[in-house]
């Protein structure tokens, strides 16, 4: 299961994120998303856990928890929406 974690402190790194979830079961990957230009954390990340039951337990217990003084939000990740390059202009001429 892919898990979305938001409202992370800007000092949280990939390994920190992994550590939050590893006590609930195997973690396939943990990644804090960073800004491409600055390399600074964007305050959210994704955790992949192969065992859905363990993932649901982690979501239930970690959602609303406090990390570095911030209440984190933990939910099942939704599929990424495709971006459309079609731009409509109301008045082209």
UniProtKB/TrEMBL annotation:
Superkingdom of the organism of origin: Bacteria
Source organism (scientific name): Niabella pedocola
Protein name (Swiss-Prot/TrEMBL): RNA-binding protein
Ranges for domain RRM: 1-79
UniProt keyword list: RNA-binding
InterPro entries: Nucleotide-bd_a/b_plait_sf (IPR012677), RBD_domain_sf (IPR035979), RRM2_NsCP33-like (IPR048289), RRM_dom (IPR000504), SLIRP/GR-RBP-like (IPR052462)
Pfam families (alphabetical): RRM_1 (PF00076)
Record has tRNA-binding as a keyword: no
Keyword presence, Nucleotide-binding: no
